[in-house]
């Protein structure tokens, strides 16, 4: 279960098909690959909030400290269940326990601390229901098993699961949460300076209260042992948790420099995007606008090419999505009908093949060569070179059918031998003529998510 969710949440895997009902042309695996070249797995659809970034690192800092502390011992019950502090299941139990403690601390202080914002807090809805059901004094259970989890499948869907890959990419630990490899030590020295370098800081004060509490809990609690939040968690600890992680705004104010150093998202291609988003903090720019403005920044050629590839790739992917949308716009219609609407949107038989030409070497780039993304891109280029619009439509229908079959799902539509199109799924809204202009973007390349992170790093409330 855990390994399944780790893959699902930290790196796109087409075989898991979370997009079966929203990505009929199978382009997510393509554009996300090109986005990863820019952001190097630091930002994606589930990893884009500075509060959660910092919370995850902080919790791992505490778990690592617990493992390395010879004076920290497990209760006999926990010793029987986990054998050793360095066992993965024990680390999971600690991470779940800490995440739950954090969520309840926010709930406890949201009415008395105006800075506390619970929006975007993972598990907050379930926690609130438990809070109300148990009269504001919920039970905390120490275990890695489901009975200890506020959020369903918390090991994957909680903070540690969603923010696992970025910390792996930055060399804080490996996929098994091993902290002690030599290459990880420089990062942990930097993390220690960040967390405890200033004992008067929000994070420093929290660590000074939370670590002794965690150390005492693992020494005294049974496996699946329980605490009553209001009865057993010190009020000062609750306050410190709520103060340190009150919002992305609060966290960004003290964590900005640390995370820019660790992620290097203010450098290279990502740095150009960062500069644009910083400069336009009050403007909600479209992803295309952000990228085009970033291309005007001074960049090394290798970094500039990462952005230029996206600028060439997206009109190609966007037009394929437009063509499929036109194909799926009516329950029963014809290839000729689709071709007519394709023409009304300013496209002709040469449109896709012309867009495909600048992409000829993209599938062979080292970062994606041999991957599902490269395979998909190559097949779409073949569809583009099919000839006239009718042939492109037929081949796109076949390509779509192959994608859906690989997902274990039925095709949304089929094209019969007499050129009739029958849609088996819900029809898609046909865009009004003139609204999907040539060159318009359909995909977002994690730019809205990056904007969310940038605003948090600025200390701007979102």
Task: Give a structural overview.
The chain has 462 residues and is mainly alpha-helical. It has 22 helices and 5 strands. The strands form 2 sheets. Strands 3-5-4 form a 3-stranded antiparallel beta sheet. A two-stranded antiparallel ribbon has the order 1-2. Helix 15 crosses helix 22 (447-458) and helix 20 runs antiparallel to helix 21. The chain is elongated, with a radius of gyration of 25 Å. It starts with a helix and ends with a helix. Residues 1-19 have low confidence and may be disordered.
Concise synopsis of the structure shown:
It contains 22 helices and five strands. By secondary structure, the protein is mainly α.
List the helices and strands and how they pair.
Elements: H1 2-10, H2 28-39, H3 50-68, H4 76-82, H5 88-109, H6 124-133, E1 139-142, H7 154-157, H8 159-162, H9 164-169, H10 185-196, H11 202-220, E2 225-228, H12 229-232, H13 235-244, H14 248-263, H15 268-279, H16 287-294, H17 301-327, E3 332-334, H18 335-344, H19 351-356, H20 372-384, H21 389-406, E4 413-415, E5 420-423, H22 447-458
Antiparallel strand pairs: 1-2, 3-5, 4-5
Helix pairs in contact: 2-17, 2-20, 3-5, 3-14, 5-6, 5-13, 11-13, 14-22, 15-16, 15-22, 17-18, 18-21, 20-21
């Amino acid at each position: 279960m855990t390994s399944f969710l780790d893959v699902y949440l930290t790196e796109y895997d087409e075989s898991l098909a979370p997009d079966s009902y929203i990505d009929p042309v199978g382009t997510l695996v393509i554009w996300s690959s090109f986005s990863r070249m820019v952001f190097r797995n630091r930002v994606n659809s589930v990893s884009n909030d500075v509060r959660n970034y910092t919370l995850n690192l902080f919790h791992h800092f505490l778990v690592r400290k617990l493992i390395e502390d010879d004076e920290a011992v497990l209760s006999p019950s926990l010793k029987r269940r986990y054998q050793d502090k360095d066992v993965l299941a024990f680390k999971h139990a600690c991470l779940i326990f800490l995440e739950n403690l954090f969520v309840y601390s926010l709930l406890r202080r949201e009415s008395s601390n105006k800075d506390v914002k619970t929006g975007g807090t993972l598990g907050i809805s379930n926690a609130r229901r438990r809070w109300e059901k148990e009269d504001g004094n919920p039970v905390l259970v120490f275990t890695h098993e489901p009975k200890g989890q506020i959020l369903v499948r918390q090991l994957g869907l909680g903070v540690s699961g969603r923010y696992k890959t970025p910390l792996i990419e930055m060399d804080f630990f490996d996929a098994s949460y091993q902290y002690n490899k030599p290459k990880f030590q420089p990062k942990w020295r930097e993390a220690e300076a960040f967390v405890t370098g200033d004992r008067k800081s929000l994070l420093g004060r929290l660590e000074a209260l939370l670590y002794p509490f965690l150390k005492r809990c693992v020494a005294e609690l049974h496996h699946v042992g329980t605490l009553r939040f209001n009865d057993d968690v010190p009020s000062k600890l609750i306050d410190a948790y709520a103060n340190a992680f009150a919002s992305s705004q609060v966290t960004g104010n003290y964590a900005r420099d640390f995370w820019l150093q660790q992620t290097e998202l203010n450098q290279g291609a990502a740095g150009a995007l960062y500069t644009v988003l910083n400069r336009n903090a009050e403007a909600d720019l479209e992803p295309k606008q952000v990228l085009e403005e970033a291309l005007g920044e001074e960049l090394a050629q290798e970094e500039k090419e990462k952005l230029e590839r996206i600028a060439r790739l997206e009109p190609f992917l966007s037009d394929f999505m437009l063509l499929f949308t036109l194909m799926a716009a009516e329950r029963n219609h014809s290839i000729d009908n689709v071709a007519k609407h394709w023409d009304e949107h300013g496209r002709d038989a040469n449109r896709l093949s012309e867009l495909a030409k600048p992409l000829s070497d993209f599938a062979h780039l080292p970062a994606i060569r041999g991957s599902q993304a490269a395979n998909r891109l190559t097949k779409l280029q073949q569809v583009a070179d099919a000839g006239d619009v009718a042939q492109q439509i037929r081949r796109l229908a076949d390509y779509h059918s192959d994608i859906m079959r690989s997902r274990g799902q039925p095709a949304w539509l089929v094209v019969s031998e007499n050129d009739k199109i029958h849609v088996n799924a819900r029809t898609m809204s046909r865009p009004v003529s003139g609204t999907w202009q040539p060159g318009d973007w359909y995909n977002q390349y994690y730019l809205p998510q990056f904007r969310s992170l940038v605003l948090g790093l600025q200390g701007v409330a979102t």
